[in-house]
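seq/struct pair 1
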Amino acid sequence: MKQKKIISCIVLVHCFFLSFSSNGYDLWLKYSKIENEKLRNEYKAAVASIYFENGSETLDAAKKELIKGLESMLGISTSFGELARTSNSLIIGKQEALGIDIATLLRNEYASLNKDGYIIKSITLNKTQHTVITATNDLGILYGVFNYLRLMQTNSSLKHLNKVDAPKLDVRILNHWDNMDRTVERGFAGFSLWNWHTLPHYIDPRYEDYARANASIGINGTVVTNVNANALVLTPHYLEKVKALADVFRPYGLKIYLTARFSAPIEIGGLKTADPLDPKVMKWWKDKTDDIYELIPNFGGFLVKANSEGQPGPQNYGRSHLEGANMLADALAPHNGIVMWRAFVYSEHNADDRAKQAYTEFVPYDGKFRDNVLVQVKNGAIDFQPREPFHPMFGAMPNTPIMMEFQITKEYLGFATHLAFLPKLYEEVLQADTYRKGKGSTVAKVLDGSLSPKKITGMAGVANIGNDMNWTGHPFGQADWYGFGRLAWNPHLSAETIAEEWIRSTFANDENFITPIKKMMLASREMVVNYMNPLGLHHIFDTGHHYGPGPWVGNLSRPEWNPVYYHKADENGIGFDRTETGSNALAQYAPEVAEIYGNLETCPETDLLWFHHLPWDYKLKNGNTLWDGMGIKYQKGVDDVEGMISLWETMKPYVDTTQHQHVAMLLNIQLNEAKWWKNACMLYFQTFSKMDFPEEMEKPDKTLAYYQSLKFPYAPGIRPRW
């Protein structure tokens, strides 16, 4: 009986870990066994003899990752030997560790290598073939090892390798909107990873896995606290906890950053003011910064949300964003720290179009910020909508380091229950043309300094990570985290390349799976736009939680918080006029861009109602009226979700049963909510158009009053109200 109980316990433990693995904990780093025998033999031959330079914690982390990957994918026990030149081998080390003969062979590659970059190259030495993974620093070695393992994961050949790669952006960072009580603003995958109560004495192994995952895609920084900041994190008690996280992250090249609450000198410092030009305030921030670096030598710096949505800032004291940012930059400069100052500002006291306000406040300060200040700008001028034209600031501040802020968490794209491959959104923005220096002046070139050199460059992503077993809630949400990291490393990559890498690393290398799933992923974001905000509609989400449609909301205290402010539907038509006859937000773009968007003949219909208020019977390019076109787009979004469900059902042979069921159930939620969006919005807008629904659209089965009655007081991710 005792033996049976022991066996039962073993079976239960095995099932638990099997379930744990199949629920996606390993992300794109599960290192599945290489099934292709020919490739497996090729890979084994390539790693039969390995030299790995000894040294720092970062090199140890790289070595540990290589062992894990090779043992999992090839089933071999990895060992390391001396640097051999007479037999085929894998040679891993920095330039100075590999000897003059190898360095001479790679002199051109080393000359072109930027900071943290790496070389993976096949070479011939003493008539024998070798593969070299090398770099000029330890972090480059780590990135090189992760990419070498990715070649195996994606079933790429290891013969004739010649890869030289380096990050095109300096700061590649996740912004966690995590609160000290472990709730996550706009978080849809459980609670915060950071257990402040048990830190610093209990180090959850998940912290290291988080760092590994980020390093594998080139992310090199993390802001662990919410932009709606809490000054307590800057107190000694909490800084000891932050230090514990920083120590775990450091070997993986992941710097830790904190949000700085501008009123901290008052709240925790005992001062009577937080005026950035007050000498006592300046000294308080300098001393606080010195204390942080004493604990955390590689601390990255501060992220600041100021004078936005109720957050304190320099304008409370009659000072500017420039003066506030430069004050903090001066405190950080001796330590090579940076300030990321968010440009997401708009005021209830400003009657101008909300889309214009950030530009108006920041562009006059172009070239006046300290060298260690990055102005962090959302991809669009409103707020992470399913589709927005690129923010005009990207084309208007040539002398200021501007960093992109994308949202990885799906605040406005259906939370973690909807499949929408966000790298397609990122790609659309990054490849948009600002015309700052003529045609071809893309946002990506603004960010990486190609158009005008910058001392520092960067990209931030609002994280979609929580303590759910699979990190992101939706298994396909992992692809958004992965894709953000790859684009932060190289903003010129295509969403298609990223999708294929992720599919192969996460699920399978079978073309019968890859081809249809990649096509599905690449189409999924447009599908969500269609059933939520077609033809340039935007910000018609329900109040506060942004869960589901609320185009009828018009009773909030601030005009720009109401959906009716954005769609402006009336009996004459729908849309926000941002041309010369309206708010003239178009004037903030280059003349070439303004001409494209301002002219109805050339304005992309995807952005039509963003820039124009048009009559319900306006004729679209396909001959449909605007009213019919809206209904057809909403219906297409619903139909495309049904298509995803049908396709996913056929993918059972290629996917773990648990994950297949998980995605299938989420897709059914997505279908129900797509229908909800279609029905609620079209019923509401019909009260103005007074027109019949188009024949192509399935008619609503409930009344408008029903949809308006729905309440969601406990929707996840709502901003806390302290």
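seq/struct pair 2
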Amino acid sequence: MSESSKRIALVTVTSETFINGTNVTLRSFLQRNPWFGGDIRIVHDGNLSQQAQSFLRDIDSRVCIQKISEDLSKRVNELANSRQFAAPAKAQFSSLECFFLLNYERVIFCDSDLLFLSDIEELLELEHCFIAAPDGASIQGMARDAKTFAIVEKTEGDLANTFNSGLFIFDGALLNHEVRHGILDELEPDKWEKRHTGHTDQAVLNRYFKARVFLVDPVYNYVLRHREPLEAKRQLAPENAKTLHYNLPARPWDTDMRTFTEGGDRALEFAYRSWQEASAGFPFYSSGAAEKPAAGEMPSHRGANYDLERLIRAHLFVISPNNSGSTFLKNALALSSNTWNLKREGQHAFGFSGPTPVKLNCPLCWASDPRVLNCIQDESAYNWHSARKAWYFQAFAQNPEATIFVEKSPPFLLHVKALKKHFANARFVFLVRDPFAVAEGILRRREKDFESRGAALEGVARHIAYCLEKQRSNIEENPDCSAHFTYEEMCADPQRATAKIAALVPELGDIDLDQKVEVKGMYNETLRNMNSDQVSRLSASDIETLAERFSQSAETLQYFGYDPLQPHVS
């Protein structure tokens, strides 16, 4: 009997925060496995909104949404009431519901954070009652303690050949009363008294099916949390996986991609690109009506759900040395009804292709290191077309018909020519700030990167001077597509700065720089000049050392109205 003619169920679990994960998991499975002719069951714990359920039913006509059974819910609640760890993890036990189904010859269970890259039909041709892929312990050739579930050296009585519960397949013969009773028995609170790990359903299934599991190659369930041992011990790269399992602190449908972008992790970068490419054509779930957010809040419209290639008519880049007020300006622009924006800087957005100061271990003062500066300036290292696609996918807006895309990343001060070339109707706001105040902001965070205070002052001053010289060139070379002002001018007369931006991009007539704006989670207030606060943290010796270096670039500082020998604090 062919797999397509058998009575098969594909089962997953979801919640309000996993809707977009479920959407991509199921759609990618159906795309990659055209043979599948079975039912699709989505399990939830009873707290799934009608709006979410309606969205999920649009995935396929075979989708059936159901709550976990009363027996399972009762046992999970009893465990949660007696064991502190279980209360916040109750929903994770919902996968066990797949053993409470009826009349299926085969059941495929997958977590809602899987991306299917290839066909897995061959797994259903295996004549084993329970099939799964290795977990972190098995990948490393280790075992798990039967009571604590902690990873241990293999000894008699331990759980060997343990598996990850993100993807497993089992025979319909296991859909019986004995198995259900055995699984419920594993939820007895006494059996979790010595638990040492964060595992929930995975611990249950490994304990119960320890003698019956057949382990397949981890290519079928490439657990990204274990990417390092997979490559080191199994020589398995994510590019060769049939599924990618995103069991990470940040999910690929989340707006904050820090887990994926920082550190230059090649496997994670590939994983996110794969998710982005696969999901680009899928609808995106967003709960709640669109409304103007309070300062710093995330609007509900997301670029993944709209054709930004058609909508965007201009790109506005805030070009500024770091620590110069650009975050306030960017966040204020995000409150306009006509902008698409990124939650994080474009250089840190997942899918950005090119070297960054963070990846090169030189954040905030990248122009002070010739090696780093050369890497960042190398235009051949960047794929701006790919960056635009990634940015559009992750963008947010108050108004889905917004037409202006806004971005700010300090190192892009080096790439104005490239941005003009690769982004249609590019416009620029060039911003600078008193170099002494900028220096204090960098020193406060990055002094530890230098051998001494003196070396830090020299390096930071060199970085700032280079950025100001480059910014002067940017202003002089782009008079027809830019506006410029200083941080001090913006603080003293926000209406004038607003008018300059609106003159450059008329669609931004609704922006208001004279309002409370959240900045980096550190403060949420109206615009004010903080130079005196920052300069007050510098010693007289610090200022003297900085002035000595800035005097070598006196003409450039004076071009912006700054005194190279003393701070501008008014």
